[in-house]
Design goal:
The protein is mainly alpha-helical. The protein is 65% helix and 6% strand. The protein is built from 22 helices and 7 strands. A 7-stranded mixed beta sheet has the order 1-7-6-2-5-3-4, sandwiched between helices. It is elongated and about 85 Å long.
């Protein structure tokens, strides 16, 4: 991770401000949940309905004010807007203190609505300001810090809110929420300026019209809009699960309010760990393959949580008593893994959304994300409240959302299979071999490029798929492309089938058309110009297709060589591949990347010489 980023002025004041905002929100929200569940509600069902209604009160402003917030964040300087929003938080917390003092449920619900409004205006700025203060290489790490920090703030806010969530400590609670609001405003004073993305934007208060317009604009960028929908689904799931924790603690674990705090704290720690792991796994790149992987994990561990079976008790157990009950550690493990997988799920989505949205529309794109999030989260609150009203218990609700989530995971996989398969390829390759990458950063981080590599084994494409920093399209012999099972994987990876003049000559022009199309769309295309896998370990003569490709679509060319692959199970050293049993487990392989060559300087022979030089004596 970008270790220096957290301590730099361009990031630290912003990080502290958003951290304190999440911290303070959760002090109030969890204190409210504890007060309602354990002190103010007349019965369990009333408490469950009120708590889920509180979720609606907090989230509804994102729907009502999201379009206005997005316009403000694109039209005006962002650091100034943050300071005004933090001043508003101070006022809201003063009102919230009065509601706590008078034990007014409606006053507390109004405060949650006001906090939601404040968050709705802060949200578009929170994520759109990051690309203005960090580089593209730092963006995923910055998002990992933000998500981990947010959920650590939720953890600390949860603990403090729960600890202060009792009538006899109400004055300390009031002092805390106002004090931290003031501290958040103070840290916001040091946030560096972030100029307006579109000062000429014509501002409109016609919320329905503007909301429809910005949603249409966001939807025109399909990959970004898909990431918004996936992100929104996570918050539907998260809102449903998190809101049930106090009820789960009381009715399933028979625990007191400290147990409810433990569950929320466990989830927050898991999210932080998952966010950090996401940055480590991604190695600084936006690795969307983690998204379906995280979704599958979320469903599996939520289903396991729904099977919780803990002995009933005549009175509520303390925290130490709950830990002594068989099955408690199973609950903690599953909660941690649900949250860990959630971190893998959401961090790439936020980074992708920021990286690939238009700069002049980025804040409104984030606002669309918040609007759709709010619709999903309000729906989650309504669904959970309705299920409780009709007699469903909390474990049954967990089962329902686990099933719903696996359906979503399958849908996500169907839409971005190449990302998921890249991740699986990385896991497979690094599980079998030790891979060394030399000068892999020579590959352009954006824009089209033609990658030219020697062909040593049937495992060459998975090796490259797992090490390339971006998705790529592979040109493949049509016979492999049409294999019954593997062919489906190749189609998901958008592989380009090709033949020759003797076999399937009709595919040749189609392949060149597809290569040109992919390059013009800004993608990487990988070719093995020898035409077939080497039978001797030496490079075969390069075929003339390179010249045709570059003449039609002049793009940068990246020479690449595989070292150490000759002699592996899938090479032809023994006459044919797959002969005998694998004997080269964890063998060291090297992927060497040469300097980028401009198309006007490329010839078939020059590329052959360069790839041969990169490979060296190590076959």
């Amino acid at each position: 991770m970008a270790k220096k980023l957290i301590g730099e002025k361009r990031f630290l004041p912003y990080f502290c401000t958003q951290f304190l905002g999440a911290f303070n929100d959760n002090i109030y929200r969890n204190a409210f949940a504890i007060l309602i569940t354990y002190f103010l509600a007349k019965n369990n069902q009333d408490g469950g309905v009120i708590i889920n209604s509180a979720l609606v009160a907090f989230i509804l402003p994102f729907l009502l004010f999201g379009a206005i917030a997005g316009q403000l964040a694109d039209k005006y300087e962002k650091a100034f807007l943050i300071r005004q929003i933090k001043l508003a938080e101070i006022v809201v917390m003063i009102i919230g203190s009065a509601a706590l003092y008078f034990e007014s449920t409606y006053g507390m619900l109004f405060t949650l609505f006001a906090l939601g409004s404040q968050s709705a205006f802060f949200g578009p700025i929170k994520y759109s300001i990051l690309p203005q203060h960090v580089t593209k290489d730092e963006l995923l790490d910055a998002n990992a810090y933000v998500e981990a920090g947010t959920f650590i703030a939720i953890l600390l806010g949860t603990v403090l809110g729960g600890a202060l969530g009792s009538p006899e400590l109400i004055y300390y609670l009031m002092l805390a929420i106002v004090g931290f609001a003031v501290l958040g405003w103070f840290t916001s004073l040091s946030i560096p300026s972030a100029p307006a993305a579109l000062p000429s934007l014509e501002f409109s208060f016609n919320v329905p019209k503007v909301t429809i317009e910005i949603i249409k604009e966001a939807a025109s960028n399909r990959p970004v809009f898909m990431s918004i929908l996936a992100n929104s689904w996570f918050w539907f799931f998260g809102a449903t699960i998190l809101t049930q924790f106090p009820i789960f603690a009381k009715e399933v674990l028979a625990g007191d309010k400290q147990v409810a705090i433990l569950l929320l704290a466990t989830f927050s720690i898991g999210i932080g760990l998952g966010s950090y792991a996401c940055a480590l796994f991604s190695r600084g790149r936006v690795e969307m393959g983690l998204v379906p992987f995280g979704a599958i994990g979320i469903s599996f561990f939520t289903w396991q949580l729904s099977r919780t079976n803990v002995d009933v008790a005549e009175q509520l157990r303390t925290l130490s008593e709950v830990f002594a009950v068989p099955g408690t550690w199973w609950v903690i493990l599953n909660l941690t893994m649900i949250a860990f997988c959630s971190g893998l799920f959401i961090v790439p989505l936020y980074a992708f959304m920021q990286l690939y949205s238009k700069e002049e529309h980025r804040s409104r794109t984030i606002a669309v994300n918040n609007i759709i999030n709010s619709v999903f989260m309000v729906s989650a609150g309504v669904m959970a409240a309705a299920l409780i009203h009709f007699g469903f218990n909390v474990l049954e609700i967990f089962k329902i959302v686990a099933i719903m989530n696996i359906i979503v995971a399958v849908y996500i996989f169907s839409k971005i299979p190449e990302y998921f398969l890249r991740l699986l390829s990385w896991l497979l390759v690094h599980g079998i071999y030790r891979i060394k990458k030399t000068n892999i950063d020579n590959i352009p981080k954006e824009g089209p490029a033609l990658i030219v590599c020697n062909h040593v084994s049937f495992f060459d494409p998975p090796i490259l798929l797992g090490v390339l920093p971006r998705p790529a399209r592979f040109v493949m012999w049509y016979g492999f492309y049409n294999l019954p099972i593997a062919g489906r994987l190749f189609k998901w990876l958008k592989t380009i089938p090709i033949g020759n003049a003797r076999e399937r000559a009709d595919l040749v022009p189609l392949a060149y058309d597809k290569i040109a199309e992919e390059l013009e769309a800004g993608h990487l295309v990988v070719i093995f110009p020898e035409g077939h896998i080497t039978k001797t370990g030496e490079l075969n003569t390069f075929q003339p297709g390179i010249d045709k490709i570059l003449k039609r679509t002049p793009v940068p060319v990246v020479p690449m060589a595989l070292r150490g692959v000759w002699g592996t199970w899938l090479s032809r050293k023994k006459g044919r591949a797959f002969s005998g049993f694998p004997t080269t487990f964890m063998k060291k392989l090297t992927v060497v990347t040469g300097d980028v060559m401009q198309p006007e300087n490329v010839s078939k022979q020059a590329l052959f010489d360069k790839v041969l030089e990169l490979r060296g004596d190590e076959k």
